[in-house]
Design goal:
Layout (H helix, E strand, L loop, with lengths): L15 E4 L4 E9 L2 E5 L6 E4 L4 E3 L2 H16 L3
Antiparallel strand pairs: 1-2, 1-5, 2-3, 3-4
Length: 77
């Protein structure tokens, strides 16, 4: 039995995922073409990630990403 024709498992829109290429955590916004679109927990521009480079984010990683975003916002003028 082969895996040909099977699409990689993509997390549901609204859930958090990790871009395994660089370790960034983002909220899954949806799919556009062959890519999964992710957005940082604090907002900002979406980025495209190939589905094979996306994995569900554990709660600890989501919390760390959200704290980084809050801290970054606190340093803005």
């Amino acid at each position: 039995m082969t895996d040909e024709g099977l699409e990689p498992c993509v997390p549901e829109p609204g859930s958090f995922a990790v871009d395994t290429r660089d370790g960034r955590v983002g909220r899954v916004m949806g799919c556009v073409g062959p890519y999964v679109q992710l957005r940082a927990p604090g907002g900002g521009a979406e980025w495209d990630c190939p589905p094979e480079s996306v994995r569900p984010a554990p709660l600890g990683e989501v919390l760390r990403a959200r704290v980084r975003e809050v801290n970054r916002e606190g340093r803005l003028p």
